[in-house]
């Protein structure tokens, strides 16, 4: 075994764990190299004595280390001694603390025992006192109960006496006191005396109730009280007695008060029942206005007497008004229910409803203090006559009513020094009355809703007649941005007034039914607009119209429209007249005007109708109908212009192209097409919105240019000179079509865009490029035809080549040899052979058709 070198072990440092080293570093921070955890003695010696000459300083360095070690030993010795002394002192202090805690526990136990002894002593002392307290409380309760029982017995005796004397003032006070005293005996309901008193008081209450009802019955109607009591003194005494009786009724409770008010209202309105009830002299619907005048006259006659008799919290006038409304509603329901919708006098119905609404508004403002109904409508005076809202009397009544409401509010406030208990009771009674009473608004008017069918039918009839008259007149309104049929302006004006008329009366089911009639009106108007389209538009528009309208009138409209217009079978040779063109433009503008006005109308209806119906308001189907009418009219305009140019196109194959010798000016058919286009296009441009005009020349160009190629393909034996002439003609037509977006008449002051859209120029150039390519092939020498065909028409078929040879006048046997050379017999039909099946417009043009001009016309600003 190898022995360890003592010298090496002397320099080996003591290794501690990393945690210990870290804690020592935190506890005893030091900058000394010897204190570092990574200290290496060998490196330290080599660093301080790197060579032999440096060893001469080793003795002083060693002495210095010995001195340091001695100082450290001294410090360690002192610290160890101090630690031993501190440990001894801590042991002594701990023993002293334990002794002190033991003494403290002994004292606490002693105090706890003494406290328990004191508590037992106090309980012994207070036991007798508690018994005396309980006895005192029972004695006081007994004495109080006896006093209350004595007071109750006396009060019942006094009540019995005063009731027999009909002294209502004292009786009311006694009855109130008896009720309050009985509240203290709720726990003694099994005591014989209490049961006996209860029975006595109930009997007295029934007796008082009978007396009060008899007194009111003896007086009868307050309107004729002067006939029963001619003397003012006697009448005043009777009224005062009835006022005291009302105090008794208040003490008898709410059920008695409710019954008395009901009986009283019946007595006051008995004459009204005779006059306006079933079989009455004024029971007819036409006499409804007199009902409210009668009631106001009644209030004016008995109002001062009601104030004397009835307490203000009873709100007797309001209750009388509600009772009157209930009777009136029953009368009107019976009257209207006995008639069919055709038998009802609509004007009388509307007048009665309007009068009912005015009455409800005025009564609510007068009796309920409802500020929300105090609006800008007319009012009613005390005699039931209508007061204009702008009159001086109406303004006076408005401020008088506001002052009265302010006074009533101040009256209900608790004032310093007043009887707060009585005021609280009055406010509580008034609150109870308010909670029991229904609102007057709508009490009568809502009963008209089930019978407003006649009104809706009248509006439907008026709208249908208005449309018929407007269409027949064919007047054009040129006051707007674009000319439209004045019938459309009149239609929306009528509908706006109809909305106002209806919402003044009701905004519920009747208004919802009326807006359905508006939809039928729009559908009818769109059908009448469709009838103005030429006969050839039937196949275009009838499908869309049938999809939007499910009514049975569609078939008749389609039939009648087939016999209208200036472009029927009898006039197809002449095509589209200027007058008919203008009419079609009016149809487009009118349809656009209607489609743009309907969203505003939809918003107005949704805002004014009852919220329960607002989500069901939707005019999108009607908007789509007018868009369809505009689209169908646009197709008619395009087709009509094409018909005017058909004769010119048909002249192309009829020319003798075989013997054509010179290339000169454009042919007559080019001149005719140019004249027609320059005449009609500016008219269309002036009549239509820019977006519709763009849609027109897009559709017209996409449809007509292929027809030019079809006409050329019908030509036969076209020589090379004729081909050059055709190229010249096509070039002239190309220039004409490139100017379509900016064509104007010489006298026109049109200030629209003068730039031709780049996409339109590209489209026209491409379409005429196909025609020019065909003409170049036609003018190619026969020996170069196959090679030119392959170069100019790389995807061409044998049928395409055969069509070119037909135009050049090739014989059948020559065509076969050329087709053999081409080597493509039996292929599918070519593009030129299929030219008649080409689509009339590209996808971009179809999308363009979907964008309609936006002419602002807010419905509610008319």
From TrEMBL:
<dbReference type="InterPro" id="IPR038260">
    <property type="entry name" value="Vps53_C_sf"/>
</dbReference>
<keyword id="KW-0333">Golgi apparatus</keyword>
<keyword id="KW-0472">Membrane</keyword>
<feature type="domain" description="Vps53 N-terminal">
    <location>
        <begin position="38"/>
        <end position="469"/>
    </location>
</feature>
<keyword id="KW-0967">Endosome</keyword>
<dbReference type="GO" id="GO:0010008">
    <property type="term" value="C:endosome membrane"/>
</dbReference>
<dbReference type="Pfam" id="PF16854">
    <property type="entry name" value="VPS53_C"/>
</dbReference>
<feature type="region of interest" description="Disordered">
    <location>
        <begin position="403"/>
        <end position="430"/>
    </location>
</feature>
<protein>
    <submittedName>
        <fullName>Vacuolar protein sortingassociated protein 53 putat</fullName>
    </submittedName>
</protein>
<dbReference type="InterPro" id="IPR031745">
    <property type="entry name" value="Vps53_C"/>
</dbReference>
<feature type="domain" description="Vps53 C-terminal">
    <location>
        <begin position="725"/>
        <end position="809"/>
    </location>
</feature>
<feature type="region of interest" description="Disordered">
    <location>
        <begin position="547"/>
        <end position="574"/>
    </location>
</feature>
<feature type="compositionally biased region" description="Basic and acidic residues">
    <location>
        <begin position="404"/>
        <end position="415"/>
    </location>
</feature>
<dbReference type="InterPro" id="IPR007234">
    <property type="entry name" value="Vps53_N"/>
</dbReference>
<comment type="similarity">
    <text>Belongs to the VPS53 family.</text>
</comment>
<dbReference type="GO" id="GO:0042147">
    <property type="term" value="P:retrograde transport, endosome to Golgi"/>
</dbReference>
<dbReference type="GO" id="GO:0005829">
    <property type="term" value="C:cytosol"/>
</dbReference>
<dbReference type="GO" id="GO:0000938">
    <property type="term" value="C:GARP complex"/>
</dbReference>
<dbReference type="InterPro" id="IPR039766">
    <property type="entry name" value="Vps53"/>
</dbReference>
<dbReference type="Pfam" id="PF04100">
    <property type="entry name" value="Vps53_N"/>
</dbReference>
């Amino acid at each position: 075994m190898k022995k360890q070198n003592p010298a090496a072990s002397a320099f080996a440092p003591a290794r501690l764990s990393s945690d210990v080293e870290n804690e020592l570093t935190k506890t005893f921070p030091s900058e000394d190299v010897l204190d570092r955890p990574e200290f290496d003695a060998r490196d330290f010696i080599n660093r301080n004595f790197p060579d032999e000459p440096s060893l001469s300083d080793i003795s002083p360095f060693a002495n210095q280390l010995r001195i340091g070690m001695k100082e450290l030993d001294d410090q360690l010795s002192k610290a160890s001694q101090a630690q031993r002394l501190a440990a001894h002192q801590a042991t002594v202090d701990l023993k002293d603390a334990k002794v002190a805690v033991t003494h403290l526990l002994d004292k606490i136990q002693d105090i706890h025992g003494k406290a328990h002894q004191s508590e037992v002593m106090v309980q012994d002392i207070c036991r007798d006192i508690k018994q005396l307290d309980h006895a005192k409380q029972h004695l006081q309760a007994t004495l109080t109960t006896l006093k209350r029982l004595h007071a109750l017995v006396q009060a019942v005796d006094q009540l019995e006496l005063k009731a027999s004397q009909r002294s209502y003032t004292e009786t009311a006070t006694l009855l109130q006191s008896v009720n309050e005293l009985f509240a203290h005996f709720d726990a003694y309901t099994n005591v014989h005396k209490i049961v006996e008193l209860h029975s006595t008081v109930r009997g007295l209450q029934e007796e008082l109730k009978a007396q009060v009802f008899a007194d009111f019955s003896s007086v009868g109607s307050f309107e004729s009280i002067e006939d029963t009591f001619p003397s003012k003194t006697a009448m005043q005494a009777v009224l005062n007695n009835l006022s005291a009786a009302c105090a008794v009724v208040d003490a008898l409770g709410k059920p008695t008060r409710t019954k008395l008010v009901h009986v009283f209202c019946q007595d006051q309105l008995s004459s009204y029942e005779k006059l306006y009830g079933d079989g009455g002299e004024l029971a007819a619907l036409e006499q409804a206005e007199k009902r409210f005048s009668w009631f106001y006259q009644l209030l004016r006659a008995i109002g001062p007497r009601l104030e004397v008799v009835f307490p203000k919290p009873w709100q007797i006038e309001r209750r009388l008004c509600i009772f009157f409304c209930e009777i009136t509603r029953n009368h009107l329901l019976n009257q209207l229910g006995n008639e069919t919708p055709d038998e009802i006098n609509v004007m009388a119905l509307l007048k009665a409803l309007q009068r009912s609404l005015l009455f409800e508004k005025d009564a609510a403002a007068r009796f309920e203090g409802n500020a929300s109904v105090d609006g800008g409508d007319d009012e009613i005076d005390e005699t039931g006559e209508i007061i204009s809202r702008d009159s001086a009397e109406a303004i006076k009544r408005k401020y008088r009513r506001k002052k009265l409401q302010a006074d009533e509010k101040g009256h209900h406030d608790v004032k310093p020094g007043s009887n707060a208990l009585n005021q609280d009771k009055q406010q509580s009674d008034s609150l109870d009355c308010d909670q029991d009473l229904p609102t007057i608004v709508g009490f009568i008017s809502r009963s008209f809703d089930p019978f407003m069918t006649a009104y809706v039918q009248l509006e439907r009839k008026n709208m249908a007649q208005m449309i018929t008259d407007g269409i027949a007149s064919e007047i054009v309104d040129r006051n707007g941005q674009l000319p439209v049929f004045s019938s459309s302006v009149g239609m929306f004006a009528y509908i706006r007034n109809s909305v106002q008329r209806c919402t003044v009366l009701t905004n519920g089911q009747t208004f919802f039914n009326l807006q359905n009639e508006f939809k039928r009106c729009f559908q009818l108007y769109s059908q009448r607009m469709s009838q103005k389209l030429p006969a050839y538009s039937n196949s275009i528009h009838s499908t869309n119209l049938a999809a939007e309208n499910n009514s049975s009138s569609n078939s008749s409209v389609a039939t009648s429209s087939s016999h209208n217009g200036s472009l029927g079978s009898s006039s197809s040779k002449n095509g589209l007249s200027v007058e008919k063109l203008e009419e079609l433009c009016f149809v487009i503008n009118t349809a656009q005007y209607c489609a743009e006005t309907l969203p505003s109308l939809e918003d107005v209806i949704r805002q004014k109708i009852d919220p329960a119906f607002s989500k069901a308001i939707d005019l999108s189907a009607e908007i789509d109908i007018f868009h369809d009418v505009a689209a169908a009219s646009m197709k008619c305009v395009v087709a009509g212009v094409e018909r005017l140019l058909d004769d010119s196109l048909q002249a192309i194959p009829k020319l003798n192209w075989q013997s054509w010798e010179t290339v000169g000016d454009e042919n007559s058919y080019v001149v005719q097409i140019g004249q027609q286009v320059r005449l009609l296009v500016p008219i269309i441009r002036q009549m239509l919105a820019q977006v519709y005009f763009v849609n027109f020349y897009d559709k017209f160009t996409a449809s007509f240019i292929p027809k030019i190629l079809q006409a050329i393909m019908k030509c036969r034996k076209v020589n090379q000179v004729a081909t050059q002439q055709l190229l010249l003609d096509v070039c002239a037509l190309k220039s004409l079509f490139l100017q379509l977006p900016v064509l104007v008449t010489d006298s026109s002051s049109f200030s629209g865009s003068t730039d031709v859209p780049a996409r339109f120029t590209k489209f026209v150039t491409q379409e005429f490029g196909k025609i020019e390519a065909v003409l170049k092939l036609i003018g190619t020498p026969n020996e170069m035809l196959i090679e030119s065909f392959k170069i100019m028409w790389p995807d061409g078929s044998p049928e395409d080549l055969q069509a070119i040879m037909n135009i050049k006048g090739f014989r059948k046997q020559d065509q076969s040899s050329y087709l053999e050379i081409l080597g493509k017999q039996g292929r599918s039909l070519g593009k030129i052979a299929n030219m008649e099946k080409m689509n009339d417009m590209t996808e971009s043009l179809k999308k363009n058709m979907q964008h309609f001009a936006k002419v602002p016309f807010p419905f509610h600003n008319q």
